[in-house]
Amino acid sequence: MSFSSFSQATDLPSWSALQEAYDTVGKSLVVKELFKEDPKRFEKLSRTFTNYDGSEILFDFSKNIINDDILALLVQLAKDAKIEDLRTAFFAGEKINFTEQRAVYHMALRNVSGKVMEVDGKDVTPEVHAVLKHMKEFSEQVRSGEWKGYTGKAIKSIVNIGIGGSDLGPVMVTEALKAYSKRDMDVHFVSNIDGTHIAEILRAVDPETTLFLVASKTFTTAETCTNANTAKAWFLEAAKDPAHIAKHFAALSTNAEEVAKFGIDTKNMFGFESWVGGRYSVWSAIGLSVVLYIGYENFEAFLKGAEAMDKHFTETPLEDNIPVLGGLLSVWYNNFFGAQTHLIAPFDQYLHRFPAYLQQLFMESNGKYINRGNEVVKYSTGAIIFGEPATNSQHSFFQLIHQGTKLIPADFIMAAQSQNPIEGNLHQRMLASNYFAQAEALMVGKTEEQVKAEGNPEDLVPHKVFQGNRPTTSILAQKITPAALGALIAYYEHFTFTEGAIWNINSFDQFGVELGKVLAKSIGKELDVADAVSSHDGSTNSLINQFKQWHA
Ligand code: G6Q
User: Fold this and answer.
1) How far apart are CA 473 and CA 109, in angstroms?
2) In contact, 14 and 77? CB cutoff 8 Å
3) Host H or E run for residue 138
């Protein structure tokens, strides 16, 4: 069952209505004029999310190129695409990832409140809570120093070995929540098969005080297995006795058999189920590095923040549903304005890996051209996501956002309160002034008259004009706490769900990523022998043969 009630999104009645609205009105809307015409625009087009702890996040959609009628049509598009039915199936643990016959049920991992959540008629909550309890106990032992390494010393360094979904989430979250960390413990991430990655990290840690977490859902991923074996060999060089592995290696995986084969005691294995997709796995045992780094209580707050966003997403009418609105605006720009990209700019140094994390979430989920009816889609899907923290990015690629020829919808994310309110909060106010100024400048631009009035020479005037009307969504949190971060991630998860529901694609498989795993394997064998290859195309053969010559 493909959970689809239509074929092409372009066939939906509201799609044609939106096309007409775009042609007649939408493409010529000038947002700064709309603010003048409607003093209530901000109130109408912003929404506040209230987290479980009472903290709030403000989502300001009012600087987007829409009016009330277009917003109503976009909401109608979500209804026509039967997003509510798909959402019900999603939260009921149905196998909406129909190409892999799997439920998509990472929401069950953050079901801290303990609702019944079933897959195949079985409540998965007790099992999820049992793993969380194991993570709690283990992390408390390690953090308190009770867990000792092979020479009796406490653990000081955590090294997570994983890639893709088994890396990006933990890296991003540990960086984002560094302020909550135990400062006497450091955390490292090895993902790349490039030996440099692990070599540099092994230089920085001590085998007596290091705990390796081998994070792999399948436990068969070549990069992770190779890096884990290298770590094991390095460890045994110092520790000698393989019995010591039990104190220094843990596995985060669904594959107990492979974990045991690797030599990790399955008592030190933290499991999860096949209904957890890699890009959604930071909420699972894959998040153990996060728990070790920031402590279980903070991790639980992170889960609860996401659970609160799940509740908002499932219970709020579509017109007020924050992730639905985010996803609808993305469809508006992608499919009517022809936008190809989407910028995510956190005004927050701790969020420096957030754009990379979202790249996987968005592009692995919605980079698909076959719809849920097994046909080629007749429209553009998944946007190209990119981003870097501002203000740094303002000093580089923001040029193209302001004066390039492309429309680039942007999300600006910031917190009012800094984790480091140094110099009487001066830094935070300077950061904030940029956050507000950039979004405002992108919207209002600068007219020829203004540039002339500044006394610029005639021939420079066109170069200094800014057209403006470049859309941004400003997301303002009170503080980036574990709870706020959990909610923000879940916001983007449900945002991509909304896009996928409208584009009528399966947002939950990733055959494109799996292709890479297969391709590299066969060429790998050819590289192990000295003979020249001739089995590929002319370019690939020549490149391989040149590599062999230089590599030798
Ligand atoms: C995520 C992807 C991918 C995956 C990695 C690691 O949705 O499938 O990024 O997480 O390829 O896979 P393992 O966890 O199985 O090693």
Assistant:
1) 29
2) yes
3) helix 125-144
The ligand 1 atom at the shortest distance from the C-alpha of residue 162 is 16
- pTM exceeds 0.90: yes
Q: Which residue has the higher pLDDT, 2 or 360?
A: 360
Active site residue 395: yes
**What is the number of the ligand 1 atom nearest to the C-alpha of 253?**
14
Known active-site residue 129: no
Strand order in the sheet with 186-190: 186-190, 157-161, 210-215, 249-253, 269-271
pLDDT at 1 exceeding the cut of 80: no
Asked if residue 169 has its Cβ within 6 Å of ligand 1, the reply is no
pLDDT tens figures, 130-157: 999 999 999 999 999 999 999 999 999 9
Q: Classify 382 as helix, strand or coil.
A: coil
If DSSP codes are grouped into helix, strand and coil, which group holds residue 480?
coil
Predicted confidence band at 517 (pLDDT cuts at 50, 70, 90)? confident
Helices (H), 177-295: 195-204, 222-239, 245-248, 256-262, 288-294
Two tokens, residue 283: 């909420």
User: Residue whose CA is closest, atom 5 of ligand 1?
Assistant: 164
**Cα dihedral 203→204→210→215 (10° resolution):** -80
Nearest CA to ligand 1 atom 11: 164
364 in catalytic set: yes
